[in-house]
Amino acid sequence: MKMPRKKEVEEHYNKVAHTYDQRDLTYAHVRAQLLRLLPLGENQVTLDVGCGTGKILLELGRNSRYAVGVDISSAMLRGAIRKIKEFPNIDLVRCDVECLPFRKAVFDRITCTEVIEHLEAPMSLLNEMARTLKPDGEVFLTTPNDLWFPLFYIADKTGIRVPEGLANHFSPWRMRRLIDDSDLRVRYSKGTMFFPAKAWKFMEILSEVLNKLRLQNLCLKQIIVLRRGF
Ligand SMILES: C[S@@+](CC[C@H](N)C(=O)[O-])C[C@H]1O[C@@H](n2cnc3c(N)ncnc32)[C@H](O)[C@@H]1O
After folding, report:
1. Domain containing 102: what range?
2. Which of 8, 15, 139, 220 is deepest in the core (most CB within 10 A)?
3. Alpha carbon of 4 to those of 7, 10, 12, 167, 185: distances in Å?
4. What is the 212 CA–ligand 1 centroid distance (Å)?
């Protein structure tokens, strides 16, 4: 019998968790870009959805009043436990992000990096983030651009990055349609290039040029800032 998709994703991340931090170069660049856009403050309550080994979560904890990270993979969460042990204002919860165990309108900022493409029901995640976001809160989401699927496939197969397991990448257009049908609205979006990682500075310049020319939909990753649509 075929394993349910959610279980397969969970087992995949349980398997790769022990090397995730050493091999997550491509994710690291996207996280760095996202953190530059993210306004944090010491009164804020923040959530990292699909927090993995806790790198963004740690930054949320350092720069906000309270941060919580949620993930389905216990092995990825163990990686996060090691990082946050000095931070009494950070908590971790193991759960499925399609059904968040929080009251409505509690978070000022929600981050969600490289997670939505792994879900069975991505719309449920978008609506759950809208439900738990404060009326003036913002979601910061990143996801790969489906146009570059062949490159991601080669990067996985050659071990350049941690294999991402079961995923359905979105084109920027499909992601827009999904968001338009959800309880969130796009406030800002940009594309980012980061490969080859050694040419990172050049890639940053290239990203800026592509965004200025309104060619962000050609970039490797999409960074999207969202607000509640109700
Ligand atoms: C590519 S990793 C990204 C981790 C982290 N956000 C980062 O940027 O390094 C994807 C993460 O999503 C988590 N994930 C996938 N599906 C999930 C689900 N349904 N509920 C909770 N977490 C999930 C995985 O366990 C994994 O930690």
Report:
1. 5-228
2. 139
3. 5, 10, 12, 13, 31
4. 31
